[in-house]
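Lab notebook, bench 4. Still working through the backlog of constructs that have no structural model yet. Next entry is a single chain of 480 residues. Request: give me the C-alpha cells for it.
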Amino acid sequence: MLEKIKQLTKDTAIYGISTIVGRFLGFLLVPFYTNIFPPDQLGIYSNIYAYLAFFNIVYIYGMDVAFMKYASLEEESKKIITIFSTTYFTIIFSSILLSFILFLFKNPIVEFSKISGNLEIILYYLLIILFFDTLVLVPFAHLRLQRKAKKFAFLKIVNIVVNIALNYVLIVHYKMGIDGIFLANMISSILTFLMLISEILKYLQFSFDFSFLKMLFKFGFPYLPASLAAMIVQVIDRPLMLILSNETQLGIYSANYKLGIFMMLVVSMFQYAWQPFFLNNAKEENAKEIFAKVMLLYIVVASLIWFSVSLFIPEIIHLEFFPGKYLIGEKYWSGVGIVPIILLGYLFHGIYVNFQAGIYIKEKTKFFPYITFSGAIVNLVINILFIPKYGIWGAAFATLLSYFTMALIAFIFSNKTYPINYEYRKIGIVLLLITLSFIGLYSFDINSILVKSLLLIVFLSFLVITNILNVKTIKQIIRK
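Model written out:
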C-alpha cells in the first residue's frame, strides 16, 4: 500500500508544486487588483469571469474527461491516436460553431451579463479566450494520463507568468483598466496553445472513428449538465450578488473569496493526481483499502490547514508588502470574516473529489447530475434568500452548504456502487473537532498571536493523542 501511496505522493508533489507556484503567482493579481481598482470595478471584472466560467464548460462538454477514461483503457498507441484525433477534431468543430453562435447573439449576451466598459472588444477577447482554452484541454488531459507532470506544470506556470506580466504592462503602463485583464488573458491563452502544438501534432492524425465518438458522447455528455451545475456552485454567487446587492459588495466578496486559495491549492493539486491514480489502480487487490487511507490522510491535512489559516487570516491580510500596499487593499478588509467559511467549503469539496473514485470506476457518471444539481439548488436557494439580508455572509454560507451537500450525496451514491470501508470513527472525530473549532472562531475574539499559536498546538496534539495523526505512518510515507 505504501508503494501505491508513494506513487500518488510523487505525482501530487509535482502537480502540487506547480499548482502552488502557479496559483500563488495568479493570486498575486489579487493584491495587484485590490490596490489599484476600487471594489465596484473589481465587481464588474468578477461578474464577467463568472460568465466565462460557464461558457468554458459548454465548450468542452465533458470530452476531456471522456478522453481520459477511454484512452486510459488502451495500451496500443494506434488506438490512443484514434481516440485523441476523434476527440480533438470534434472539439475543434464544436468550438468554431459555438463561437459563431455567440458572435451572432453578442448584443443580448452583453446586455444580460451587464458587461460595462468597451463592450464589443471585451466580447471579442472572451470568444478568443474560450476558443483557445478549449483547444488545450484534451492535450493537457493526455499529459496527465501519460504522467508527464513536469511538462504539464511547466506549461501552466508559463501561462500564468505571461498573464501576470501582461497585466502589469497593460494596466500600469498602458492604462487600459479592466480591458487589459482580458487582453492579457487572451494573449497567454494563445501562447499556451502554441506551446502545445508539438504535443497535439504528435497524436493528431486524419482518422475519425464514429464508434469511439459515440462512446465519448455517452460517457462525457452527462458531464455537461453536471459540470454546469458544479459551476453554479462555484460562481453563481457573483451574478446574484450583483443583482441582489451591488458592484461594491461583489468586489469585496470576490477579493476575500480569493483568500480561500490556501485550501483551494490543496484540493486542486490533490485532484490532478487523484483521478489518474484511482483509474490506474482500481484493479489492485487492496484498492479500496488504499482509497480509504487516502481519504483519512486528506481530511487530516486539510483540517490542519483550515484551522491554521482561519486563526491567522487577520494577520495575513495586514501584511504590508510596500508602503500602503497590503495583501488585499484596505477597502476590502470588511469582508475577511467570510474566509474561514470559504476555506471549509473547499475542504468539503476535497471530500467530494475523494468520493468520485467509485462513481468513475463503475462508470456510473449518470449520478453526477444528481450530485451537482443538488449542490446547485442549495447554492441558488441560500444565495437568493440570504444575500438580501446577510450580504456577503449569506453567499459564503451558500458556498459551504452546497459543497457539504455534494460531498454527502456523492458518498451515498459511491457507497451504493463501490462501497469502501472508510475509517469512520477517526473521520468523525476530525469533523467534530472542525465543527467545535468553527463555532469557537466566531464566538470568541482572539487577537493574541501567542494564544492562537497555543490553540493550533492543542489542535495538532489532539489529533496525535487520539491516534488519528499516526506519526509513525506519516514518517514511513514521507521516507518512501
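Notes after review: The chain has two domains: 1-20+237-480, 62-220. The mean pLDDT is 88. Flag for follow-up if needed.
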